Fold:
Amino acid sequence: MNKKITEKIWFSICGFFAFLTVAALGLLLFSIIREGASVLSWSFVTQPPRKNMTEGGIWPALVGTFYVASLTVLISVPVGIGAAIYLNEYAKQGVIVRVIRLSIRNLAGVPSIVYGLFGLAIFAATLKLGTGLLTAAITLGIMVLPWVITASEEALKSVPISFREGGLALGATKWQTIRQLVLPSAIPGMATGSILGLARAAGETAPIILTGAAYFLPQLPSSLMDGFMALPYHLYILATQHAQATAVRPIAYGTALVLILLVILLNSFAIVLRNYYRQKNELL
Amino acid sequence: MAIIAQKHKEEQQFTKLKVITKEKLTQKSFKVNILDFLVEKAFLVFGLIAVFILCLLLYFLIREGSTALSEVGLMEFLTTTRWYPSSTASQGAGYGALPFIISSFMVTIGALIIAIPWGIFTAIYIAEIAPKRVREILKPTIEILAIFPSVVLGFIALVILSPLIANLFNLSNGLTALTASLILSVMALPTIISISEDSIKSIPKDYREAAYALGASRWETIKTITVPAAKSGIVAGIMLGFGRAVGETMTVLMAAGNAIDMPLKEFFGIVVPNFLTSVRTLTANIAIEGSDVAWGSLHYSSLFVTAIILFIITFVVNLIADLLISRQRSKLGNE
Structure:
């Protein structure tokens, strides 16, 4: 009996903490949706900020985020897939692979602001690209690379070994087998990884502060060297750097809501895609 | 006889065919093998890119930081407390990063004190106790928490948490180390929960069945068998949570107030950390000063020295986590 009671107490404690996790997320979402929903409208999304950002919308920040995140994916995905193909299809266990894996894990642990400083030093200052879209996108691309590699490798691992054996048995070379059999069935998984990378790049702030995000730009960037507005940086500016911090608060809430929706939508899309193809693969 | 002759002829033809095919095959595969060899080498280059980037990162951190390291010296960064990097020597320049280092550790450890019990109990609940339906709510909850943009968490800390803290402790300003720790604990939580849960789940069923067979209750099994067996994995999760929290920029930048000061106070003659004061972490300092520093100046160089310190801290922490995870794996593999 005593045993039963202690167990009940401890189970309730565990349950309480688990509940607290859900409550924390609920509270975060609730507070943003409550304040942000009243600001959210079609014109908020499609209009530029006006009157020193106290009115108007977030259009340039939304487009800037789209630009920088897409460029990031364009840079990191080909490299990430290439590295994953090497690790999963070609590499044999040995010193080289250990060093590569150690480097990937290390890069994943480097603080984002250190990437920002690195991007500033190498691309902006040394290679004279200046601060702007391109510098920010390469910096973010390097930052999300470890995740893209890991996701692509997972996708390759999920392709059954029989695909490779079948290809080789038919007399195809290794590269033919990879290109024509393994890659096509790994592509959905890789797409999932790319979308997750896109979501990460869209929500990231620290590296772009140093490498090209602009406080305020009246027009959209017209070249890769231009500065750009981005949703997360816009939120940071509205919340902490603006002279009338309380006056722009509703707009800050609206920006936060749009950012959250964007990141959650991208992630849900990636998860749906993954589940759909996982089921399809299992049927094979 | 005719049949035998026929068969012999067929066999001869067949052998001829085999030889031709073999020749063709080897010819073809020779060409393709070169291509295959080249492709493999091309992919090796892709594989080595991560190594190259890591070397480049280290090289640039050290190259840009070397001016400050040689002119100021590492010890001044690590042990002094005056940070006036943009002044000239005659104006009384100072490069003491100690307040940032202490603040970074303080805020991170504060976050872990909250996140460790929270995370471990939640992980136990998900792995061992929760009914399937509850797990289906908890899993996406943790996934969404993990993708929450840090700037949004910082914003929440700024507009909701800090007024609360100010009211609670009668402060004029709620942007304190405590505020940052509270919000950072939410950020460290998904890492701690998912790694701990994974390692609890990886404990073989026989362990639990053996405990039940000896008459242990479910909780006794969890407390004395499952969790201790998953210990290295759980500690690895905590270390990774530490690494994440110490490197986090936006939340602490927005929540901690950013005053450059030693966050310590005397309490009955003993120096203790003061969680109710505004602090500036290593990461926040780089974000604040990095965007308008003159490239190549001593100030610029000194920011790279603080980045090197940050890199070393996260490197060591992640290395320990890595060793713990591989230890857990080999332990379970051997038994």
